[in-house]
Amino acid sequence: MIKKLPKKTVVMVGGGLTAGLAARQLTSKGIEVLVLERGGDHTNGAEAKLPTQRDELRWDTHQGLVQDWGVQTYSLRYSRDETALPVRWMEAFLPGEGLGGAANHWNGHTWRWSEYDMQLRTRNEARYGKTAIPKEMPLQDWGTTYAEMRPYHELFEKLFGLSGKAGNINGKIQPGGNPFEAPRDGEYPQKPLEYTEAGLTFKAAAESLGYKPFPTPAANSSGAYTNPDGQKLGQCQYCGHCERFICEAKAKASPQLLLYPMLKARKGFEIRLRAHVLGLLYDKAGKKVTGVHYVDLLSGQEYEQPADVVMLGAFTMTNTRLLLTSRIGRPYDPARNTGVVGKNFCYQLGGGVNVFMKDKWFNPFLATGSTQVYMDEFNNDNFDHSGLGFLGGAGINASMFHGRPISSRRVPPGTPRWGSAWKKANADWYAHSMVIGMQGSCYPHRENYLDLDPTYTDAFGQPLIRMNFNWRDNELKISRFIAAKQNEIAKAFNADIVTPASTLPTTFDTRNYQSTHITGGTIMGADPATSVVSPHLQHWDAHNLFIVGASVFAHNSGYNPTGPLAALALRVGDDIASYVERPRML
Amino acid sequence: MNDDLAQPQPARRGFLKQIVSATAALPLVGRAAAVAAESVSAAPAVPASASAAGLGYTNFSADEAAFVETMVDIMCPADEYTPGGVDCGLAIYIDRQLAGEFGKGARRYMRGPWQAGKPQQGYQLPLTPEQFFKAGIEAANAACAAKYGKPFDQISAADANRFLSDLAAGKVGDASLPLDTWFNEWVYPLFAQACFADPIYGGNTGKVFWKLIGYPGLPSTHTIDIVQYRGKPFPGAKDPKSIADFS
User: Fold this and answer.
1) Is the separation of the CB atoms in A576 and A341 below 8 Å?
2) For residue A562, what pLDDT is reported?
3) Contact A239 B220 (CB under 8 A)
4) How confident is the model over A442-470, as a mean pLDDT?
5) How far is A576 from chain B (nearest CA, A)?
6) Cβ-nearest to B193 among A57, A409, A507
7) DSSP per residue, A432-482
8) CA distances from A556 to A48, A470, A519, A550 (A)
9) Residues with Cβ < 8 Å from A56, sequence gap 6 or more?
10) What is the pLDDT of residues B89-99, one digit of tens each?
11) Which has the closest alpha carbon to B203: A56, A420, A118, A284?
12) Which of B203, B163, B204, B169 is nearest to B184 (CA)?
């Protein structure tokens, strides 16, 4: 029997970064917030304490902090005429579980995207003409602008104590920073992280070719820091255990460190852990949701939690799934090109060049998550695409962020895979090699979308999300273009050995980690015919339902998603407060 | 390459059975010393660690242990870099992994229906990793016997090395089981983990592989080091510390 509980003002699904930020805004105005989180609290676990925190096998190889694939995974097919298969162990991307969500095990790279990103369709049409965007690429403006989001970026960067070097202060380009950066009010809250030897080597090579490399903005704290809420970060220890790990030194800005302890002390805030949400209760005629249906994993009891407002703040896939299983909004149909839920599912490109220099001590273990030097000349629309046959691009980087020995050994091409020569190559090159990497845009494609799998279910008996996805012509062209640039830069290293740049495989591969930055499915926009939520992240078909996360991104760029996602989360907190005061379509 | 690979190795199965029957009495180092004396021309750079002493297999049958021991000693021969694979704990590591959560398929999606897909969709069989690993040993041994007339642990080291290369390259056909996938996606990662995971899991005995490459291990608090040793040899790389050193 489902038990009905007393009503709450705002109920949020998912106790990660977005819920923490939105709840910060709401509770500061005295509005009651309940967060439902499927996992537990990692704070005092083996994952957050020495020496067990440093266990590569447990947290990295065996994905100890990642969603349990035995409970819930995703199916995948490459085209509509195939039967999807469940991904039984996902390596490509890594959703989190537990208080703090994926922001526990993130690496800390924190970008403001390009000033034009939220108006990318308009930008490309203006620059390359109305026909430049292929028919099968539903590139869309987001219905909001960087100018509107800018104050929330400023706030988020102060809350998370970002370390970095400004490249553009109020339109004035700053030496040492990113000349393509969207304008900001001032310097970063903290000075940049230390450079790694790999970063310095890449910087020198890139500068010799006339590029302007810069340190990646980082949520790994370069110093001791107290944020505007009085919450503290310790100084980063450069231990090389950030991505896939929880920072035991409290030096990586994370919601379970900077947001939830503070929120728990606030009146009107409640979080229920091990509360797995099964669906939303939808009054279609009334165009509103009435609450949330969840199961308490400690008792097995199912509850109906009534709410004035519901906010979805779960991982990209779950936000989309809850709409589809709760039958809210029109599912996207690629054949007819109708509907919206599941549309514009995007991923991100990788690929790299290995560089071997016997006289250089790169010491990969002296690093932290965001000790990355980046260059933005070939990212996004920062360069002229006339005649190139593709849109978008990639940031090129030296991202030396750990030396964990199971996963981060590079050996020259032709090295045997075992035996004495293999050992010798590992001994020779572990400390003397690095990679020139990339992170590239993935623009929407009409056939890349999410829907419900007709066959496979999760441990709760609910359908899995089905990924209909593959790399398309645009991504393959970006990959080849960037690979050529990477090879040119690698030449400038004067290295002993260079492995030529790898290009994107034609088939998306779930077996290798690429990026956890999957986007879309519940995209935002100004037109209800082509978006799920409004520019204020309010569902077009349920006005008291708000959705926030990378699921609202209308495309994916060559940047990590945390910056815009966090800015949107802070703003949606303010928007929900306004809605609670006077319910209406904002 | 180690030149002892060209020389025939003694048949080890019979020897292993003696060991298995006398596990309690005879530490593994005893066997390691015997094998080293019989077959290895180059002296190991590091003496065999005593920490493997007294460890027996919790999961492998005698045949499975024979296969895996032979394999890890081929993939990690005793040489100037490390002791042989068995003495580095590599077989113990694989045994423990198959016996534990990993082997039982913990946190993997194991619901049907089951059907074949593209390799990029990942492993799609209803067998747990432990079951698949063992089915692979059976199939590989059968293929080995078909080619060489003997199971894997009884062929010469040179033939065993070639057989592993053929497995990796997809040149060992078996209608019942994709042996290249088995080797490349299951066996090889376990081998690499056995070498480089924290010694607490049974491999990388004496941190021998961390010393080999210069990974300093724990506690890795490098706020000062990143500046002081940027671009320079890091002293801690010579004397790595592991979880057990801080437990």
Assistant:
1) no
2) 98
3) yes
4) 98
5) 37
6) A57
7) GEEEEEEEE-B---TT-EEEEEEEEE-TTSPEEEEEE----HHHHHHHHHH
8) 31, 15, 6, 9
9) A404, A405, A406, A407, B196, B197, B198
10) 999 999 999 99
11) A56
12) B169
| Residues of chain B with C-beta less than 8 angstroms from the C-beta of A401 | none
pLDDT digits (tens, 9 = 90+) for B22-66: 333 333 333 333 333 333 334 444 434 434 456 899 999 999 999
- B120, B214, B229 ranked by CB distance to A508: nearest: B120
User: Does A586 reside within a domain?
Assistant: no
Which strand (E) or helix (H) includes residue A256?
helix A255-258
- Report, as an integer, the average pLDDT of B189-201: 98
Token digits of residue A550: 């990378």
In chain A, residues with a C-beta closer than 8 Å to the C-beta of B75 are: 418-419
Answer with the residue of higher pLDDT: B176 or B232. B232
| Three-class SS state of A398 | strand
Under 8 Å between Cβ of A342 and A324: yes
Specify the pLDDT at position B33: 36
Q: Of the listed A42, A517, A543, A555, which one is catalytic?
A: A517
Q: Which residues contact A250 (CB under 8 A, 6 or more apart)?
A: A232, A233, A234, A257
Helix (H, G, I), strand (E, B) or coil at A188: coil
End-to-end CA, chain A: 37
Cα–Cα distance measured from residue A303 to residue A300, given in angstroms and rounded to the nearest whole number? 10
Q: Where are the domains of chain B?
A: 3-107+122-207, 214-247
- Catalytic annotation present for A517: yes
* List of chain A residues whose C-beta atoms are within 8 Å of the C-beta of residue B164: 418
What residues make up the domain containing A455?
3-581
Number of structural domains chain A divides into: 1
Mutate to test the interface with B, among A191, A359, A366 (most CBs of B within 10 A): A366
Tokens 């089951």 sit on residue: B114
Nearest C-alpha of chain B: how many angstroms from A135?
28
CATH number of domain containing A498: 3.50.50.60
> ipTM of this predicted complex?
0.96
pLDDT digit string (tens) for A123-165?
999 999 999 999 999 999 999 999 999 999 999 999 999 999 9
**Reduced to 3 states, what is the DSSP secondary structure of residue A197?**
helix
- The whole-angstrom separation of Cα A269 and Cα A263 is 6
Subunit contact A237:B223, Cβ cutoff 8 A: yes
Which of A254, A371, A311 minimizes the C-alpha distance to A551? A311
The answer to whether A457 contacts B111, with C-beta atoms less than 8 Å apart, is yes
Rounded Cα gap, residues B167 and B143, in angstroms: 10
Average pLDDT value for residue range B81-105: 98
Beta bridge partners of A542: A539
